């Protein structure tokens, strides 16, 4: 078997949506808050990591021939010369040929992946890393002038010892006991800091943080099941709050819950209660995973929103959601809004039934009015001429007076649009599509949110570098003049959108 005929010409790849670079905040300078030595290494072009030409095989080559070629060329992937090209990896041959009992003479085109996810040769390394995370792949072909000039692998990134999310993923894979998770938080911070220093979109960074915490949670669930025995019924481990929205910063605490099947109907029958043994199993599971997350550096929720306290049969969860929707109490709903961002992270129990009360919320004016109250409760502190009002120590709380208002506005508009989306950007997209928000308003609000996330994340990294607890407040004296202007504009935009929401969604008060 020889190499295939020259590869078909590929169009120059665009950066995938889930791996776009750039902060979306031209001119924002938070350098004074970013610890020295955290970054720049994810900004190198991916072409700099390539050391050899890609292995190219014919579409008619057999799985055995491709495996032999990989071994001889010491490569873990091959480009298949179809039009457009495909890719096959050593893992594909193992999973799709050996594991499925296919014969060695199986044509490689039957087990290849196509189309391939590629990156331009001049793209920064961060783009390839994020693409690997987003698509769950370990090999990314690199394209220059329409030709695949090499393949960058997860091992290539790890060997460079770049503080990247892939190193954190590798650490999670090696966790064999809960004690092994110690130190995870430091690795996570280093990866987030490298992305921030290389100007990756803050919304992307928070999604990476959440996805890595997801991976840690799944690993801890597996360890707990191995110790406690197989689950007595299907369950769903729920991430809520910022992790549920995939917008998690480093200082976020645990916001989790647990739902499990109720009888034979997976929670459909409220009268059919699960037995005490089932509840005891999931109480133990929740305790072990919560302890493991705390040991890894994710603090316990001070308000008690954790699976150790919120573990119920699915039918009870549905009743709770319906009560919030139909009989909204403003004070209780303010505390409970963290649950509206729920997302299944682990387990096999389907939880789509919990979406129904949320989709129907747009028809409940009382519920939307209560959510509107919450969205208008946390006002950015701006004085005359846009002056930022600080506390006595010269700091401003950019969580309660910044990111929280942005999240609450996104939640309000998302519920009004009837979407099941969890992320703030996706909720605002739905609101725009439903005519509730203009394109300019959506983009302005998201830009303001990015500014606030970036400054908060930079402050958290600075605290860690100085050995201080991560604070919710930011001293204005540590911001550059450019960052201050951006911050004023962001807070003013939030205040404008709050006033607009008050007109479109009247308060229940």
UniProtKB/TrEMBL annotation:
CDD domains: NT_GlnE_GlnD_like. Keywords: CBS domain. Residues 112-168 form the CBS domain. Gene3D superfamilies: CBS-domain (3.10.580.10). It comes from the Bacteria. SUPFAM superfamilies: CBS-domain pair. Residues 1-14 have a biased composition (Pro residues). Residues 1-30 are annotated as: Disordered. Pfam families: CBS, DUF294, DUF294_C. This is DUF294 nucleotidyltransferase-like domain-containing protein.
């Amino acid at each position: 078997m020889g190499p295939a005929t020259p590869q078909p010409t590929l169009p120059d790849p665009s950066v995938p949506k889930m791996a776009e670079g750039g902060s979306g905040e031209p001119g924002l300078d938070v350098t004074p808050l970013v610890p020295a030595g955290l970054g720049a290494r994810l900004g190198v072009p991916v072409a700099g990591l390539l050391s050899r030409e890609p292995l190219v095989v014919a579409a008619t080559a057999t799985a055995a021939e491709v495996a032999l070629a990989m071994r001889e060329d010491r490569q873990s992937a091959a480009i298949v010369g179809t039009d457009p090209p495909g890719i096959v990896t050593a893992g594909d041959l193992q999973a799709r040929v050996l594991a499925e009992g296919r014969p060695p003479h199986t044509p490689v085109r039957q087990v290849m992946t196509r189309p391939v996810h590629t990156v331009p040769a001049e793209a920064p390394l961060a783009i390839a890393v994020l693409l690997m995370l987003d698509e769950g792949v370990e090999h990314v072909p690199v394209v220059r002038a329409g030709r695949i000039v090499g393949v960058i692998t997860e091992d290539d990134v790890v060997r460079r010892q770049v503080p990247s999310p892939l190193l954190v993923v590798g650490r999670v894979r090696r966790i064999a006991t809960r004690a092994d998770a110690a130190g995870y938080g430091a690795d996570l911070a280093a990866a987030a800091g490298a992305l921030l220093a290389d100007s990756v979109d803050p919304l992307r960074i928070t999604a990476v943080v959440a996805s890595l915490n997801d991976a840690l949670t799944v690993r801890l669930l597996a360890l707990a099941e191995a110790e406690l025995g197989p689950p007595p019924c299907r369950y769903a481990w729920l991430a809520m709050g910022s992790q549920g929205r995939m917008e998690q910063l480093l200082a976020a605490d645990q916001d989790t819950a647990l739902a499990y099947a109720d009888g034979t109907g997976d929670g459909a029958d409220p009268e059919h209660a699960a037995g005490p043994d089932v509840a005891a199993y999931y109480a133990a599971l929740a305790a072990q995973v919560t302890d493991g997350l705390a040991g890894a550096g994710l603090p316990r929720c001070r308000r008690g929103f954790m699976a150790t306290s919120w573990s119920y049969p699915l039918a009870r969860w549905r009743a709770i959601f319906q009560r919030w929707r139909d009989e909204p109490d403003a004070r209780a709903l303010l505390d409970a809004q963290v649950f509206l961002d729920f997302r299944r992270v682990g387990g096999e129990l389907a939880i789509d039934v919990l979406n129904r009360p949320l989709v129907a919320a747009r028809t409940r004016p009382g519920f939307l009015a209560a959510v509107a109250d919450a969205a208008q409760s946390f006002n950015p502190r701006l004085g005359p001429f846009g002056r930022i009002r600080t506390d006595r120590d010269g700091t401003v709380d950019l969580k309660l007076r910044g990111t929280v208002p942005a999240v609450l506005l996104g939640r309000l508009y998302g519920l009004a649009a009837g979407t099941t989306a969890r992320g703030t950007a996706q909720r605002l997209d739905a609101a725009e599509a439903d005519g509730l928000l203009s394109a300019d308003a959506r983009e302005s609000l998201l830009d303001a949110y990015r500014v606030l996330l970036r400054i908060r994340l930079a402050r958290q990294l600075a605290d860690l570098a100085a050995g201080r607890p991560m604070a919710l407040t930011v001293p204005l004296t540590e911001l550059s003049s450019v960052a201050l202007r951006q911050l004023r504009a962001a807070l003013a935009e939030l205040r404008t959108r709050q006033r607009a929401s008050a007109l479109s969604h009247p308060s229940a008060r």
